[in-house]
Amino acid sequence: MRLHVGCAMWTHAAWQERQLSPGERLRWYATWCNAVEGNTTFYATPSLRTVESWAAQCDPAFRFVLKLPKPITHERRLTGVEQELRSFLAAMEPLGERIHALWIQLPGSFGPTDLGVLAGFLRDFPRSYRVAVEVRHPAFFEDEQAARRLEYVLSRVGAEWVPFDTTVLFDGPPASAAEQEAAAKKPRVRRRMRALTEYPIVRYHGRDDVQRTVDGWRPWVGTVAEWLREGRSPTVFLHTPDNAGSLELARRFHDAVRARLPGLEPLPEPAAAEPMTLF
């Protein structure tokens, strides 16, 4: 059994790795967590040289869940994007097997009437990649028929439905400016805990208060433990309003699951961040 955990980024102003050069920060992060969300690819496709640097900093078992670029998912809404997709996949090629899944995050306006477009896009998607889809339209969480139709579209090609659990974030008024900003940007939808494939992916969003964050993830601890017992291979990403504490929280979540499953492989001891020297 192996549980992968991670954060929304591998560099943060509050983390000690800021002492390292940019070319060493992912290597440092990979001693803390064994997965990461590739959110930056949503805004711009990195150069081949940059992606080669990513690959050199982590071993093949490390998991990248890479978000498709905004022009594909939000601007063109999956239509007429063949060239853009080819260019993106070519740029990501150096990561090889480190690409755990390509993440299709759809805008909140992409609803049940758009499922035909999604089905066509997934049908033509290269089969060599695992695909995970995140939807934000309220109908998929409030209308069981719409949810089942989406599950059918995804299951036909072996794609996963990525839940973004923000229930704790919206449980009560914001306690800080960071919580207020997060609540303004994140989707407010019902918690969904059903896996479609062998490789479920979960995004969980907590609060500034660590105990509220930990209390809120308890249902996921049980669910993830059960997935592992079933032989699934889950990946869980931890978010907080400012993400400053997400690195430690990701490891704490892993520890909580391991407390229920002592046979779960532990995470490695994290490396200390020290300035590089010549001697």
Largest sheet: 9 strands, parallel
Q: Strand order, main sheet: write it out.
A: 6-5-4-3-2-1-9-8-7
Question: Which residue ranges are poorly predicted, with pLDDT under 50 across at least 5 consecutive positions?
Answer: 275-279
Number of strands: 9
Query: Average pLDDT across residues?
Result: 95
Structural class label? alpha/beta
Give the percentage of residues in beta strands.
Answer: 5-15%
Q: Give Rg in angstroms.
A: 18 Å
Instruction: Estimate the global geometry from the Cα principal axes.
Output: globular
Distance between the termini: 40 Å
- Series of H and E elements: EHEHEHHEHEHHEEHEHHEH
The tally of helices reads 11
In helices, the fraction of residues equals: 25-40%
